[in-house]
Amino acid sequence: MSEIQAASALQRNLAYVEESVVEDEILTTARERAAELGVAPVPPSVGALLSMYSQLLGARSVVEVGTGAGISGLWLLDGMRDDGTLTSIDYEPEHQRAAREAFRAAEVAPARTRMINGRALDVLPRLADAAYDLVFIDASPLEQPEYVEHAVRMLREGGALLMYNALLGGRVPDPAHRDSVTHAVRSATRMVAEDPDLTSVLIPVGDGLLCASRG
To answer: How far apart, in whole angstroms, are the C-alpha atoms of residue 175 and residue 63?
Structure first.
């Protein structure tokens, strides 16, 4: 198989993976709302992984950095325990209003979500050490190293860190890209890979989902 054929096969495989997850009407409507706000939500394949990780962990306490329009939050809540609480941080009030609308449509009990409006790097230092089952990061790539540092501190033993935009549109694996944002994402990925308490893998779905468990 030539390199061109191999690349074409890889693209077909990735497209098939992305199309393998079907979302319900509530998620479809939330995506329409995200488009109106100019928010780029995680694709269904990444959402399904968020739900699976939450379910496998029996997650009761989850932190989401970047609320968006509530799509990733819906997927996380789908896998969490019924008595679990999702803490979601975003500096855009309009995004969190859209997320609340999505949660209401999904009949998520208000007590299951804690929406914090503010800059994540101002909020995260106030969250407790070793208290969370899962931390999901989908916010400014430039600040990913700081998010990772806080996430590792906040995770309980056996907890999981999930970081989206780990490939940054193909820029991260391309050594020709040396801009500050790409450098920040590479640094965050390296921090995770070199942490002796973490076991990690980068899954090439969407724009790259870095997954790590804390031993």
So the answer is: 32
Q: Mean pLDDT in the chain? A: 95
Could you tell me how many residues make up the chain? 215
Q: Is the pTM of this model over 0.85?
A: yes
CB 161 within 8 A of CB 212: yes
Lowest-pLDDT range, 5-9, 86-90, 93-97?
Answer: 5-9
pLDDT value, residue 3: 65
**How many Å apart are CA 117 and CA 94, to the nearest integer?**
10
CA distance 83 to 101: 20
Q: Report the distance separating Cα 135 and Cα 88, nearest Å.
A: 10
Q: What pLDDT does 38 receive?
A: 94
Helices (H), the chain: 3-19, 25-37, 44-57, 71-79, 93-105, 120-123, 144-154, 180-194
- For tokens 């944002």, what's the residue? 181
For the chain, the straight-line distance linking the first and the last C-alpha, in angstroms and rounded, comes to 40
> Which are the contacts of 149, defined by CB distance < 8 A and separation ≥ 6?
191
Contact predicate 54/81, CB 8 Å: no
Q: How far is CA 145 from the centre of its chain?
A: 15
- In the predicted model, is pLDDT for residue 18 greater than 90? no
What b-and-e string marks burial along 140-149, b requiring 16 or more CB atoms within 10 Å of the CB? bbebbbbbbe
Over residues 47-84, the pLDDT tens digits come to: 999 999 999 999 999 999 999 999 999 999 999 999 99
